[in-house]
Design goal:
It is a single chain. The chain is mainly beta. It has one domain (about 10-95): SH3 type barrels (Roll). Helix content is about 10%, strand content about 35%. The chain has 2 helices and 5 strands. The chain has helices spanning about 45-50, 70; strands spanning about 10-15, 35-45, 60-70, 85-90, 95.
Length: about 100
């Protein structure tokens, strides 16, 4: 088992990177900061899974990250407490950057 890079409660920022391949990392979450709410065991990374490499693909841990919707969409008109959770593979996450929400 791989050492976990993040723990539940850690503030993380989703890398703001582009990709030509399937990543399951939603564009609206890229560059945004949220809180890790759950650790998921290692799984085949989406890029390898999309090419049918379930058996011999690269594996890495995944995390569920919770975002305030007002942080994701500046024009969001709902309540300040509204949140959204999404799953991100570990390499798409970085420790919270100074100066981000």
């Amino acid at each position: 088992m791989t050492q976990r890079r993040f723990s539940v409660g850690d503030r993380v920022t989703v890398r703001d990177a582009t990709s030509l391949f399937h990543t399951r990392t939603q564009r609206y979450a890229r560059g945004r900061t949220g809180v890790v709410t759950e650790y998921r065991p290692e799984w085949v990374i989406p890029e390898d899974e999309a090419w049918g490499r379930d058996e011999d693909g690269r594996h890495e841990p995944f995390y569920v990250v919770r975002f305030r919707q007002t942080d994701l969409w500046p024009d969001y008109t709902g309540f300040d407490v509204d949140t959204l959770e999404t799953e991100c593979s570990e390499r798409w996450l970085e420790p919270e950057m100074v100066g981000t929400k």
